[in-house]
Amino acid sequence: AAAAAEPPAEWKGANLKSLGISVACGALIWFIPPPAGVEIMAWKLLAIFVATIVGIITQPVPLGAVAMIGLGAAMVLKVLPFTAAFSAFATEIPWLIAVAFFLARGFIKTGLGNRIAYMIVSAFGSTTLGLTYSLVFAEALLAPAIPSVAARAGGIFLPLCKALCGACGSNAGDGTERKMGSYLMFTMFQMSTISSSMFITAMAANPLSVNLAAAAIGQTISWGQWALAASVPGFLTLLLAPLVLYILYPPEQKESPEAPKKAKEELAKLGPMTTDEKIMGGALLVTVFLWIAGGSFGIGSVAAALVGLTILLVTGVVTWKECLAEGPAWDTLTWFAALIAMAAYLNKYGLIKWFSGQVVNVVGGLGLAWQPAFLIALVIYFYAHYMFASGAAHIGAMYTAFLSVAVACGSPPLVAALALGIMSNIMGCTTHYGIGSAPPYFGAGYVDLPKWWTLGGIMSAFYLALWIPVCSVWWKVIGLY
Hints:
This protein is mostly helical and 481 residues long. 71% of the residues lie in helices and 0% in strands. It has helices at 16-31, 40-58, 63-76, 82-85, 92-109, 112-124, 128-142, 149-167, 181-197, 206-217, 223-248, 259-270, 275-293, 301-315, 320-324, 327-348, 351-364, 370-383, 391-408, 413-426, 438-443, 449-477. The longest helix has 29 residues, at 449-477.
């Protein structure tokens, strides 16, 4: 008898529909002639960047693979040389995020994360909202002391949030994400953009805004001026935004009156701290101290994180094999560095300068009063962040141009400088790559990409609707204009 025909092999590769959409979006831009004033290389890189972003959204293959394909296309098509395509792998933020994942591994492995989580649950755990607020305000209190939002997110609060979610039975990948973790992770990410906006020292790129403002308008924004200007709208946002997300993206477990009692029982079972927990706690304290004070010794954020990781590796609390197995760390490092490189070269090739110039010409030529003219410029500046994988890159490329047009239209210089500087943090709320805290929280796996972008877009509109009128009144009260 003839051998039975073998069934066709199951396709194990990319989702071809999603891949086709990504390629089509890039090809559409590629074959459209560039506008006057745009260099052909800038236009071609924009096509590849858009195709990569669409691929990251539709995910025909995992995120890191999409990024590698995008970099490969840029090199094969001679848009970027190797040194440019991989240039961001030598920048701090992607590596800081990766090392933070390794530190988080030790935080959870040793049980220290669970111990701290149970302590928090025993104090605030009767409701998910109460737990969230306790973490939100703890992060805001640390913000002015730790000038890296990526360090605060990846090194301190992400591992704590993971431990809390695990203690409450909400884990990524097993169908229990919406029980509590999805709401907690996304809210903590969103609020990290707010806490970063409230102090000059809460985000590494904020001093760049201050320096550019001083050069453009001849006024230096002091730490106190920035903090006072952001205090009322920032505090209102920290109060209201978790409630808004509680409505838009509610956790399935809203109340758990038995949780504090259960947490105390689990704490009793854990017994006294183990040696590994003490080492982990000591390593974390050293790292946080260096994040706060390391600048005085010339020690940067990545070096500080590596000091903590070194302690864990030397003592065997975390092994290098475990670091190699930390897939989300390497995946995040890959796709985030790829996007940073592409976005940086969009700026170097002149596309961002051209775009800024077009906005300046249009807004400046409308003949509007300074208030509506500045509002238009501010909104465009805010949503242009979809093209950036770094707040510093966005500020460096567009801050001075938009500040100049705002002042030319009659805006009070200090008001315009502060508004653009503060919004340079909040605009990171829209995507999973726009600010240093986004990749760690997204990489935890509790919120899928379409939901992340959808909620990010909604929250961005909420922030603008809240901050613009509140700042208009508050800044008048404190005499900024």
